[in-house]
């Protein structure tokens, strides 16, 4: 088991993260069949400076798979975007999705993640994101406009009593 774990770690380090830019026309764009799209967003209350992030996972048909919101704390807008990316990747992995497109509305965050994948990074959270992208799955990060990410933006703005629990909104039955 130790050898297979080491082999996975070596392969993960060698796989470059796959990033691309897909600027939509202000609407949510479906992924191709068999893919899951994860939209993430961060929000910051200007009064309290508390931040939250929200994520929505949808199938290629636009079917709601899961939504999440999480209180993060007092962070910058860029940091909370990173938290949204990490939590979105983590939830997709936990749901055993093997082909995902993670879409964020922050070009600055996207470029920072790309740079971290090339150079390594001292920010622990960034290292976790890069490690998630290099796992044994197909995960693409891409930019999507805020207008195409409205549901996720609303999810990010949901206050959840300042607990650090991740609040899940499963698909309606």
From TrEMBL:
It comes from the Eukaryota. Pfam families: RVT_3 (PF13456). Transmembrane segments: none annotated. InterPro entries: RNase_H-like (IPR053151), RNase_H-like_dom_plant (IPR044730), RNaseH-like_sf (IPR012337), RNaseH_domain (IPR002156), RNaseH_sf (IPR036397). Residues 39-156 form the RNase H type-1 domain. One of its GO terms (molecular function) is RNA-DNA hybrid ribonuclease activity. This is RNase H type-1 domain-containing protein. It comes from Hibiscus syriacus.
């Amino acid at each position: 088991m130790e050898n297979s774990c080491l082999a996975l770690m070596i392969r993960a380090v060698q796989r470059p993260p796959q990033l691309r830019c897909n600027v939509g026309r202000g609407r949510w764009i479906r992924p191709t069949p068999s893919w899951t799209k994860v939209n993430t967003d961060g929000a910051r209350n200007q009064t309290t400076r508390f931040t939250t992030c929200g994520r929505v996972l949808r199938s290629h048909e636009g079917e709601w798979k899961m939504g999440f919101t999480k209180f993060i704390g007092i962070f910058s807008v860029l940091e909370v975007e990173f938290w949204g990316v990490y939590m979105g990747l983590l939830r997709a992995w936990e749901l055993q999705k093997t082909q995902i497109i993670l879409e964020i509305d922050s070009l600055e965050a996207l470029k920072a993640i790309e740079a971290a994948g090339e150079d390594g990074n001292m920010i622990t959270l960034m290292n976790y994101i890069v490690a998630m992208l290099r796992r044994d799955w197909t995960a693409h990060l891409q930019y999507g406009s805020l207008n195409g990410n409205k549901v996720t933006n609303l999810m990010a703005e949901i206050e959840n009593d300042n607990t650090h629990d991740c609040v899940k909104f499963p698909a309606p039955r």
